Amino acid sequence: MSLNTQIEQLHKDKNSLSSELRDRKNEIETLNKRLDISQKLNEELKQKIESEKQAAATLHNADLQASQKELQKAKAQAKATLDNVYSQLEEVKNSRDQSEMTIKMVNNKVERILENASHYFETEFPSAENLISFLSQPPPQKSQYPQQQPNQCQPQLPPPPAVACTEQIQASLEKKLRHERARSKALSTAKEELESTVEKLKREIQEIKLQNQQEINNLNNKTKQMIEDQALIDAEKKHTIAKLQAKVDALSNKLIMKRKESNARQANTAQRETKTYKQEMAHPTQTAVSTTFGISSSSSDDKVEQRNCAASELLASQNAELQAKLCSQKQRCDELQGQLQKSQQHCNDLDLALSRAKNDFSALSIVHQDTMSELEMMRKALHEKESVKDRADKKLMRREFQAQKALAQNLAAQVDSQKEQLNEISLANQQALHTIDTQHTTILDLKQEIAQSNDTIQKLRDELISTQAELDNKQEITPDQLIPSSAWSCSAFSSELNTSINMIARNPSLQVSSKIQNVYKIIAKYYDDIIAERDATIESAYNENQKASNAINQFLINLSIALELEPITFNDFMVKHSETKVIDTIKEIRTCHTDLKRKNEQLLQGIDVVNRAFNICALNNDGTCNISEIETQINCFKCQHSTAADQLAKRTKKYRELASALKAHKKKAGTEAEDANALIRRLKSQVEDLQKQNEELSQGSQKMKWELQTAKAKLTDQQQAHEEITEELKERIETLEKDAAYEKAKAEAEYNAHIQTATVQNVNNSDAISQYVDQISMLKKSLEMQKATIKEKEGEITRLAVGNENIQHDDEAKYASERKQLVSGYEKAVAELRAQCEAHRADVEKMAKALAATEKKLKQAKESILQLKKDKLKSDNDFKSQQEQYERQKKLAETASKVAILNAQTDFNSKLDEERAKIEEERRRLYNTIADSFKQFTVTHETLNEKSFKQTIFKARDEISRLTAMDAAVRRIVNADRYQKTDDAVAQAVLKIA
């Protein structure tokens, strides 16, 4: 009976263990299903995240490209406006210089006319108005009287024809003066307009400079805000790291407690085994039952130990793999550090090259300013010089100019040497600061790497703990729990799309994967339709735009043909700003029209002045003049003017010599100006190259800023996702721990109850054995009888045991295959997750490195900006001091040159007066000698002048011609030879007659 009871208990234990095994298998299957579902969800979420990232990246790139295009357009427009402003300034300056030159030439001409008039009329004319008033007076009428005796005073003769010449000269001079006055007025008005335009352009330049300064200030404020935001983000990161460290410490404490509990359990099991062994030794009769029970318990313990060993081996292999990955990552970090150091050295070299280029540019700008100042000095000196100067004065001025130029060059060389020394000192300071910053950055990078390695180790430990807990106890997760009904709808989608998605989600015949695929298809179809509609609208708008552009193209082509220009298209009009050509041509046409009108008016005024001055002819009924009469009288005036031109020929020779000297001087100045212009062009080209480099650097900094912003956004998203995942894992771990503790308590209570009943039964059996030892002998016979029945029953038991063993082997084979499949699937999922985690880590590391590099670049840019500001302030101060010195030297040179010019003018005027006096004395001597020699033909009552001199010469000529004719007639009568005198021939003839 006891054996039957024990066998029944064994069967019950076996059934309970098999039920437990089935439950565990079911739990493992549910856990594997949950794992598969979670892996699929993770993969889908990752795909969604990647697609969203790609879409965001494309949008970001499109925004960047659009912003860069807008910036380039704005810069091109600003450059075009600046170029136009500078070209207009240059044109204004050139026109102003030309107007000043013309005004000075006109003034010189007026002064010459006044001087010549004063010499000719022997009266002084302080201004042109006095000369005009003098010339406008009618000539005095002289009375004619008969000739009296030689002792009495004779009456004046009628005015000779020279008076008419003087009147004509007066009229021509008046005409020239009026013309020059009108021209001077027009030039003065043009000068005022040019000055107003110059002032406007200067104001525009100042406004542009103020706008640029405001933009620079805004950018500086933005950089400060970015630095503050970065500091806040770093503080938040540190706070989260501290929280995670606290959580890790708590979990490590829990692990230690669980290990202690497991050690205590093992000790209890060892004590139980020793107790059972003692009981078996004490009661050898119950060996069969105890052996069977021990075999079953030992088999269950062996299975549990095998499972634990397999799990521990897996964990150890995973730990070794993770350690190997850590080592490889450390090696990679070392390689990246070396690459970082190389890139930093390259950046330092580039900074040094940039600073050198800036120093060269500053030196060239100083040289350019010096050349410009010298050119201005030359221009002013040339404008202030008069047309007539002595060669000695020119040599003195050149010597003074060369001496001043040498002094300026020496000063510039000293300034350049001092600037080079300052630049070398600043470069040394920058290098020292840069080395300190690089050391600080390397220390910070090493600290960050250590912290990252610690974080990775702690994360790996957490993952090991979480995987062990998930393997120990997992609950079934239904598809509704994984993907609730609310997850199939989104507020961002439209109502039609949400309804179609809900229809698929409510369909129970479909699986989760097929539902998700159908949902993706619906979303893709919906958005494809939207994109097709958008493309259609864009195409229609493009067609309309093309029609408008074609119409504008036709208009522009017709306009360019009408204006006789190259054909202009819409693209040229919008991009190349070719509208300036059209505007310039229209302006030129208008200016030509106004010039022609003005010239016509001037010609009409000139004809009126000629008519009034010379009373040539009156106007016709149509308002026109008889040009033939004007031409005839002008020809008469030309004949009369030719006599005066012969007298002025001698004076023009001197003026030509002076003009040739002036031309040579102008040629030299032109060559020097061309050299200066070549230098200016070179400097402009260098400035443009540096501006391009600056624009490229600014574009690079903007790109890095955009990448920083995207990296920050990604970091925040990843942090939020990590926090959500950690919270979910904590909740799962807590629920699993509670369930495991509850099941453990249950199992321990059941095992204790079984052990107590078994011990009680053993005690009762031992008492019964001691009581019924006597009865055994009596019952041996019955036992022998029952042995046959027992053998039969044992045969049946062995049959049942073999069947059970076969069933168990089949179950174990199935369990092993299922387990292998689950383990392989789980390992694949874990490997994929690890690969994804490693990819994420690599991305995070890249982002961190990019952040560090951008921060370094920002620091370097700030340092360079500060250094540039300091250099700018120093250069401004130096420039101001040099400008003040140059202005002082300029004022001194101007005063010295003015004094020298005044002295030269006074000397030249005195010399001119002396020469004129000498010429007049020589003329009077000639007149006196001729008058003494031709006393017979001179008029005594008239003064000696050109008129009386001409009259005496004409009279003497007539008398000489009369005498030569008489002599020739006498020689013919006498038949004188060719070389014989008339007196000898007459004497011979008289002798022959006598």
What about the largest sheet?
Answer: none
Count every helix, treating DSSP H or I runs of 4 or more residues as helices: 14
Poorly predicted regions: 141-163, 282-301
Structural class: mainly alpha
Can you describe this structure?
Among the domains are: 238 residues; 60 residues. The chain contains 14 helices and no strands. By secondary structure, the chain is mostly helical. The protein is rod-shaped. About 4% of the residues have low confidence. Keywords: Coiled coil. One of its GO terms (molecular function) is chromatin binding.
SSE topology:
Blueprint: H1 2-121, H2 128-136, H3 162-282, H4 287-384, H5 391-472, H6 479-482, H7 495-505, H8 512-562, H9 570-574, H10 579-614, H11 627-771, H12 773-933, H13 946-974, H14 982-993
Helix pairs in contact: 1-3, 1-4, 1-12, 2-3, 3-10, 4-5, 4-11, 4-12, 5-11, 5-12, 7-8, 11-12, 13-14
Task: Give a brief description.
This protein is an all-alpha fold and 994 residues long. It contains 14 helices and no strands. Among the domains are: 37-139 and 158-292; 934-993.
Question: What distinguishing features does this structure have?
Answer:
single chain; 994 residues; mainly alpha; 89% helix; rod-shaped; chromatin binding; coiled coil
